[in-house]
Queue: 4 jobs
Job 1
Amino acid sequence: MKFTKAMESNGTHLQGNVGATYQELVEVFGEPTRFEWSEESDNKVDAQWAIKFEDGTIATIYNYKNGLNYLGAEGKRVSEISMWNVGGHNERAVTLVNDEVIEWQHRLHDTGKSTNNLVIA
């Protein structure tokens, strides 16, 4: 399925998860929006992808309260995160995100490249 970067993701909320590395998500969905620590922010998210699928489904992929912005030195760098939240208006967002990651994994497998043991949850 085709997707584009979503301009609007308001009202999405946690629907499930996707197990993938930051780099794998960049390969599938492109560069995310990165957030820097700020006194004016709640700092709960370090990176987020906002995606709109062909059928109109909006999905967000993001870390939540486990990164450097929220936990400081005890938090994970985005390159260390392997389980990401998937937000949306319904569970279809999780299905579509996972389908894209699985399709990418199959394309890599067909070319003989490593997927670093990608796990979909």
Note: The longest helix spans residues 92-111.
Job 2
Amino acid sequence: MPDMQTALNKVLNSWNQPEIKPVNTTQPTKHAHLLKFKPTNNVTRVTFDYIKAHPGTTSAETTKALVAEGFNYGSTSSILSQLIAHGQVRRDAERKLFAAVKEYVPLKRHIKMPKGKRIVTAPKKAKEVKAPKQVAPPAPKQTDLLATMNIKDARALYDELKKIFGG
């Protein structure tokens, strides 16, 4: 059995030596060059992983399961649509969901915004709208006037005309 001093020296020497951490030898993922930011929210990844783990589920079943895990309903249903639009998830004829790729790739925006300064132009002046010319309505014909009158009004007109013209 070694003496006490040599045992203590061994322990102290092992404490003074720096720890050597093993170098990470894992290969970078196939799509590592596409990842331009560090993901902070895992809703998209969890949604993709759920569909990959449960192939053949519907959108309603997927969102219901993820809401039960604590995710927002609107977020999960929106992400499902985006995953389908980006081709990472596909639907069959019966509207069942399946993972179309082996691993999740962060989604990119479809719309590319132009870079550079925006040019602001003055609003265009509205053209003046001319009012249509007022056209006098055609003078009513006697037959039209009599056709629109009832018997009492026609008799009153007759009496007034008789006073004017005599008779």
Note: The chain has a mean pLDDT of 77.
Job 3
Amino acid sequence: MPTYEYKCSSCNHAFEAIVPMAKRKTPTRSSCDICGKKQVKQVILTCPNMGMDSCHDIHKASGGFKSAMQRVCESPGIKNSKRASELKDRYNL
């Protein structure tokens, strides 16, 4: 389940809640735990920064993304198929 951030417009109390997507508006219908006013708003949701590291280098000789794509191309379900040749061309395998 995603973590959503909320903030009270009255007292600026900020908090997080782990709720299903379908119920993400539920905290906005309740009153603030600090001041008791019903001015809780959902803050814009941001995703965590997912930086690339050396394991994700496409051109790395062994390990990483390139070798993973080679294994995909050699897997029984895709080997010698049109998709395998497309992947090989795309990633210079």
Note: The mean pLDDT is 82.
Job 4
Amino acid sequence: MKTIEEINLHNVKKILAEKKIPEFYPGDVVKVGVRITEGKKERIQYFEGVCIAKKSRDLNSSFTVRKISFGEGVERTFPLYGTLIDSIKVIRSGKVRRAKLYYLRDRTGKSARIAEKIRKKIGIDVDVKPEAVTEENVAPVVETPKEEAPAAEAAPTTEAPKEEQK
């Protein structure tokens, strides 16, 4: 008999096969596309803000996004594998030292900003093709002959040689 954890893992794998969920962390600015149904019409509304919390619990995983709308703080908690979420896009990566950023609720203005994390991509997305050496792309080597001047004629001296007295 399967346990609940095995069933949840199977469902998570099935959902991940259908849609791509990027890797993001608290402190990142994310843009979440939410499906809104109005009568018979369905549209996608984007909710962009700072991810302040992320809960990893298999199928019950969720994340909380906070944004300032017309001077008022708005938070929304989304299920990570929910059917209402159309897309998740990471806009910026934030440099934070905590897992839950609830302290941002009390802050406004410049104190609520999060520094951006610079991610180094070394050799991940770089596609370098070795260039074949042919006669067309090889630069011609031009040798310039060096003219050597004799040492005696190089620098005439105006001083007379001094004679030593014995």
Note: The longest strand covers residues 41-55.
